[in-house]
Amino acid sequence: MINNSSSMDKDYNLWHCLSMTHDAISRVRQKELKPYNINLRQSATLTAILALGDGATPVAISRWIIREINTVSELFTRMERQGLVSKSKDLENKRQKNILLTEKGLEAYNQSRTRGSVNKIMSCLSDEERQQLKACLKKLCDKALEELGIEHEVHFPL
Q1: Which of 61, 87, 104, 151 can bridge 83 by disulfide, Cβ–Cβ 3.0-4.6 Å?
Q2: Distance CA 40, CA 139 (A)
Q3: Which fold has domain 8-114?
Q4: Tens-of-pLDDT digits for all 158 residues of the chain?
Q5: How far apart are the C-alpha atoms of 133 and 55, rounded to whole Å?
Q6: What is the DSSP string of 86-125?
Q7: What is the phi-psi region of residue 37: left when phi exceeds 0, alpha when psi lies from -120 to 50, beta otherwise?
């Protein structure tokens, strides 16, 4: 029997480690969000809407969370049905819609700010390791966006 892992290249192995880590942390975070009836994408979207303020358009939000516009549109439809967001016409550009948080959406955002699981997981890193990891992840994300032909600054938290 051939050991496939020995035939994989080092870049794929590193990507696989990154992917597994993302999946594992995401599962823990999703478990934490479940009591608030929102998922990871909805949590990210609520954060983006608050951060963008009056500029929270579907296009701006899709860029913020690095998702295709049609994916984000479907997400808005579901979130609107849940009462988390509302859509309003932009006063300057009637064809454009702004996405607004409802009271329920703001409440869900505030509840979801509890990030005990993330803090617990990240606590195994020193401050220096966190800065190194962040710098490496930003560099990888920038390169991936370049490969996709997406030209915008990723909103990495400080």
Answers
A1: 104
A2: 23
A3: Arc Repressor Mutant, subunit A (1.10.10)
A4: 455 555 568 999 999 999 999 999 999 999 999 999 999 999 999 999 999 988 899 999 998 898 999 999 999 999 999 999 998 886 777 677 899 999 999 999 999 888 789 899 999 999 999 999 999 999 998 899 889 888 766 666 64
A5: 30
A6: EEEE-SS-TT-EEEEE-HHHHHHHHHHT--HHHHHHHTTS
A7: left
The Cα–Cα gap between 36 and 55 comes to: 26
Alpha-carbon gap, residue 143 to 16, rounded angstroms: 17
Residue 75: how many CB atoms within 10 A of its CB? 21
Token duo for residue 78 = 């579901």
The answer for residues whose C-beta is within 8 angstroms of residue 117's C-beta and 6 or more apart is 28, 29, 31, 32
H or E stretch covering 85: strand 85-89
